[in-house]
Amino acid sequence: MGTANTAKQPLLDASPYSRSSRDSMSSMSSSQILRNFILMSVCFSANHGAVTACLGLASTKLGALTFLDADLGTWQNGTLYTFYTLSALFGATYIVDRLGSRDGILAGVSIYCVYVCCFLVASLVPDVWKWPVALLGAAVGGVGGGFLWTAQGAYFGKSAEAYANATNTSKQASTGYLAGIFSFFYLSEEVALKLLSTLITQVLGQSWLVVFGTYSAVAVASVVGMSLVYKFPVEEKKSDNDFCYKVNSASRLLFNDSKMFLLIPMNAVFGFSAAFLNSYVTGQVLHFATTADYAIPYFDDNSGESMGLDNYVGMFTAIPAGVAAILSLVLGSLSAKTGKGPILIMGAVCFALLASVFLVNPGVSGWTWGPLVAVFCLMGCGRATFESTLRATFADFFAHDLPGAFANIILQSGLSSAFAFFAFPHFNCEEEDDYCVKYKDGSLHDVRLLEVIVIVTAGLAVLGYARAAVIRRREEEEEEE
Fold it and tell me: 60, 84, 198, 361: which one has the fewest Cβ atoms less than 10 Å from its Cβ?
């Protein structure tokens, strides 16, 4: 952790960039370390909350423009996750190694501002310019997102180690506790920002331009706050770790450690489920939910077409984050008693149930508030395990290479999401029936295949984790000998 100073450092330094490379958290009290971690969590969550709020609105607010059976929102989401994945695979660990974990986060949230602001710009330009603005913003934002999470993983691991030392507790207990705290702020702020769009448009009667302007302001403000977070010293560079070695850290860990390969489905099921919920449920089912009780479907001012519950998309997309925020605090404490395995298995089952609901009750018409809320709650239950317990598990399983481990989370979940956003719209069919669904643009899509992919991947996630846990226990036994 570095050399401790004889005098205690303040929690926040007005000039964090000027810290000596020999400074560390070893002279801080546990409460100071915790407050610093909370500050990082709040700023990180505000930035990412603005990003995910825009991500959830992409298919709805940019969906009028289509190309090759997919709307602009779907193309933008696919582009975001493609560059997100490429960034994690080629260079995320090198960037974090060069900048350090705190400055890596700072750079990542700064770049993510480009993605958020592209929605504001797209609201102002003619349709012909919306495509380049949306796709360029997604590409730039994806690059930042790829190493942002890698940096956050490294910062999380170092903070957990420092907190464990300060409180004289185990590293496993510390990772579980801090993961719950981070997930609470991360998800609760996402809830607030997603609900903000409904508040601004439905309660205050303002335009979507105001919504995206507000999100842009929040993203920029989070960058300022992040600059106040404690900066860990950057470790001395090793001569044998050349550029290619660091760039390939994620792929090297993936192919050389069997545990990482076995955990791919656990990350993939989240990516597939998120894409299924965003592109199909949010993008299509809500649109056709015109008979829902206690909701007044509105009409598009230009076409006169019924838009179902589209105007309530902000509220629906806030449900998973809200459920996950509440559960994350519970799961952090529960994992100390039950272990992380049962919680991860529960999450995979929730993802499978989400897709099974539409397998049992196919079609886009006739959906009402109760079933739709239940579907979004299932996503929240699954997501709670992904955002907290799974990340804590990676910190435990791959403590020797935290940047590479967290880059793999991005690589695996991002690649699955990118595949889903690009591929799912092209699972076409020829004759409309319960599982061959007509989308709002008139094209026919085989949604049963999407649902089966999610369910099968969830099953593989359970089996993969069980095997990886066995290998990890064997490694711990060997380390104790």
Answer: 361
Return the half-sphere exposure (C-beta side, CA atoms, 13 A cut-off) of residue 13: 14
Nearest-angstrom CA–CA distance, 364 and 287: 9
SS3 of residue 299 by DSSP:
strand
Q: Cβ(173)–Cβ(396) under 8 Å?
A: no
pLDDT for residue 37: 93
3-state secondary structure of 69: coil
Question: Token pair 């590409």 is at which residue?
Answer: 139
Positions in the chain whose pLDDT score sits under 70: 1-26, 56-74, 88, 91-92, 234-250, 289-311, 332, 403, 481
Cα separation of 94 and 404, whole Å? 10
**What is the radius of gyration, based on Cα positions, of the chain?**
22
Distances, alpha carbon 164 to alpha carbons 6, 33, 157, 161, 206, in Å: 20, 10, 11, 5, 48
Q: Spell out the residues 6+ positions from residue 391 whose beta carbon is closer than 8 angstroms to its own.
A: 153, 156, 179, 406, 409
Per-residue exposure over 282-297, b if at least 16 CB sit within 10 Å of its own CB, e if not = bbbbbbbbeebeebeb
Residues contacting 356, CB < 8 A, separation 6+:
451, 455
Within 385-443, residue ranges assigned H as helices are 391-397, 402-423
